[in-house]
Amino acid sequence: KKVVTWLRNRGYNVLEVRDRGHFDLRVEGILDAFDSYDVRYCVFLACEVGGAKFIESSKQDVQVGIISSNVRMYQSVIPWLTARNIPFVFSSSYLQGTHNGYGSVKRLGESWIRALGGLGKVLRLWNVYGAENVGLKSHVLSDWAQQCAEGGKAESLTDGWEERQFTHADDAAAALGIAMEKHWEMDEVSDVSSGDWISMRDAAGVLSAAAGSGGWECGVSFNAKASPPREKLSPHLNGTLHKYWKPEIPLQEGCRRLIEEYRASGREGHKQEL
């Protein structure tokens, strides 16, 4: 939703695939419905993704589902775009190197796009957060913010010592929009990140401070369980994209917006997908 809003606010005409109930991109030929339109560009976000509790799940059916659904989407969407010579940007992840279903399908998507000779560009997103429906696929800051909005406290699934770099959904949407506008200048792969490492314990402190600035309580308690280890990578923030884009929303301001949105919704959260 954030990308659509960014584009429409700048005067672009946008055809939107909202969700699987709207268009199931796993179905070959489903995009033929757009052949009557003059499609000039595609922002390819529709992948089977989620937060750590989803993509790092030990359940076999979850991992198989991630691989199966994403491969089927690639087989439907990428040939459709290439057959019509439509340039596009593909949202990948800094976790593309991880040894699970999610990492495997992101690597596959990147490899396929590299083989197209510039028609597709890759943006690796780093821990994008924003209001979303809370459930199996939601992300940690959204989970905590929703719990705090409803009960004034949140519970972490881990001990909180793992570190992340966060990017607000509005900043990520701007990066994707700028990647479209500067497509033929863009590097093959670009990172979208704040560049700032923070432990989840410190992120909880930022969330608590953001809540306090609005007169709300938000205390996060931590589990004894350590998060699965991840290789600590560094984003490349000196590419072509970064001549035109910089993140504008600090983590505390993003957390304040997040809690406000959940409090305003009056329920478990409303979907604001990228």
UniProtKB/TrEMBL annotation:
Domain NAD-dependent epimerase/dehydratase intervals: 67-184
Residues spanning the membrane: none
Name of protein: NAD-dependent epimerase/dehydratase domain-containing protein
InterPro entries: Epimerase_deHydtase, NAD(P)-bd_dom_sf
UniProt organism field: Hemiselmis andersenii
